[in-house]
């Protein structure tokens, strides 16, 4: 696999097509729906939305760092909190430890193709800190507002890299990613962290009060099997999905093992996060 590193360093993102084949993508989609089918929303009616993230954080969300849990779309519930859509069309995302716990997702996460990308962009000793399926269901798929991934997975020094994998074709019509070329040179604006003084237990620490740029974003349309590599500081977003097609994607986030991961980051685990299997490690193990 040849990566255009000059383009990545210039833009802060890179589109890598044909990393997963369509059969693998379909298997991952089917597994996601099996997880959704087994989920009981009557027990855990936790909504995820990036437009009100502090308000909607709850124990189900804060305890998901080393679990596999489902989160609902805001528009899947009526004013009384009752589910008004079929489950498969009501889930916002599944997270945040598929890479370790799920028998279908884990082998893909530790496969040689993704490891080659991590090594190819220069990561030294990457740790898989987070994984999630983002369903973006038809008609009600929620907007993801402009953000920097380092806001949510802060390390010192900053080190997070996102691998966003299209499991279905992602287009402008059904809510593909948009990113700001060169935006990774923007300063980190804030950090989302646990805050015992907040009613919901979380809050934002501001480093730079200036807003992220609003103009200059470009669409990152991606066929199923494409990996979009995202620098931790590049601003990116996705629009609401009002089309009749879902836009299922799988996102992994990697950090460097040597970087400090603060104890008040929102995502915490009860066990150490697994190292990412690299090509070099695989060859040493005879894999």
Keywords summarizing the entry:
Jelly Rolls, seven-stranded antiparallel beta sheet, alpha+beta, 287 residues
Describe the SSE topology.
Layout: H1 5-11, E1 13-16, H2 22-38, H3 53-56, H4 59-62, E2 68-72, E3 91-96, H5 98-101, H6 105-109, H7 112-120, E4 126-134, E5 144-147, E6 161-166, E7 177-179, E8 190-194, E9 202-206, E10 218-220, E11 227-231, E12 236-238, E13 249-256, H8 279-284
Antiparallel strand pairs: 1-11, 2-3, 3-4, 4-13, 5-12, 6-11, 6-13, 7-10, 7-12, 8-9
Short summary:
By secondary structure, the chain is α+β, with helices and mostly antiparallel strands.
Give the structural class.
alpha+beta
CATH architecture: Sandwich
CATH H-level superfamily title:
q2cbj1_9rhob like domain
Distance between the termini: 18 Å
Residue share in β-strands? 15-25%
CATH topology: Jelly Rolls
| Quantity of strands, as a count | 13
Strand order of the largest sheet: 1-11-6-13-4-3-2
């Amino acid at each position: 696999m040849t990566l255009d590193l000059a383009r990545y360093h210039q833009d802060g993102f890179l589109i890598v097509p044909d990393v997963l084949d369509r059969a693998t993508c379909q298997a991952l989609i089917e597994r996601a729906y099996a997880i959704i089918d087994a989920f009981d929303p009557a027990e855990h009616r936790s909504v995820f939305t990036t437009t009100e993230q502090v308000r909607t954080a709850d124990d189900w969300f804060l305890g998901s760092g080393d679990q596999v849990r489902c989160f609902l779309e805001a528009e899947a519930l009526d004013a009384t909190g009752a589910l008004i859509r079929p489950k498969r069309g009501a889930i916002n995302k599944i997270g945040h430890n598929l890479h370790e716990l799920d028998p279908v997702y884990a082998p893909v996460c530790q496969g040689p193709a993704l490891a080659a990308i991590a090594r190819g962009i220069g990561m030294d000793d990457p740790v898989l800190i987070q994984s999630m399926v983002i369903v973006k269901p038809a008609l009600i798929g929620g907007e993801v507002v402009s953000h920097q991934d380092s806001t949510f997975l802060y390390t010192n020094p900053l080190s997070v890299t996102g691998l966003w994998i299209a499991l279905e074709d992602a287009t402008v019509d059904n809510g593909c990613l948009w990113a700001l070329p060169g935006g990774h040179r923007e300063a980190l604006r804030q950090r989302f962290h646990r805050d015992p003084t907040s009613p919901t237990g979380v809050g934002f620490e501001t480093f730079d009060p200036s807003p992220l740029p609003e103009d200059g974003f470009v669409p990152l349309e991606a066929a199923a099997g494409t990996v979009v590599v995202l620098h931790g500081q590049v601003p990116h977003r996705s629009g609401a999905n009002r089309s009749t097609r879902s836009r299922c994607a799988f996102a992994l986030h990697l950090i460097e093992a040597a970087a400090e991961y603060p104890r008040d980051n929102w995502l915490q685990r009860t066990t150490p996060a697994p190292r990412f299997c690299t090509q070099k490690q695989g060859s040493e193990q005879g894999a």
